[in-house]
Amino acid sequence: xxxxxxxxxxxxxxxxxxxxxxxxxxxxxxxxxxxxxxxxxxxxxxxxxxxxxxxxxxxxxxxxxxxxxxxxxxxxxxxxxxxxxxxxxxxxxxxxxxxxxxxxxxxxxxxxxxxxxxxxxxxxxxxxxxxxxxxxxxxxxxxxxxxxxxxxxxxxxxxxxxxxxxxxxxxxxxxxxxx
Length: 179
What we know:
By secondary structure, the protein is of the alpha+beta class. The strands form four sheets. A four-stranded antiparallel β-sheet has the order 5-4-8-11, with helices on one face. A three-stranded antiparallel β-sheet has the order 2-3-7, with helices on one face. A two-stranded antiparallel ribbon has the order 1-6.
């Protein structure tokens, strides 16, 4: 699914020049439905993907995001802001709502985090529970001021400690961008 998603994303952005996050996700959803041959929600193929798109224009200082599935976290002037995702997949869905473009108010040195669900869904800890978004937000709040390399090291150490002897259950991706 990831390979199909990347190919369709490149087509939307590079070839069709779609540059608004919400419209990129809409285009990706339409192309994925066609690529998977999905006709209606009763089809057996109910595959979809989750993802977030972030754009910035440094000449106009315009920043914008849109997301499906996982929240987007911004640390703005030291305060954590959670940007809620659309609760619709990129793919066929019973919900017919559109993706929403969220403009961002940014300051120098703000951090923006986009991530897959692999980190928050990782099992571990003393009761073999999921890591959960609340813990990830606490970690990000505590490390946002560090260099991105130090943040990477701390995030890796935190999830390895949490995981312990448990196997990694999913891919893990956290993209941190210092604005």
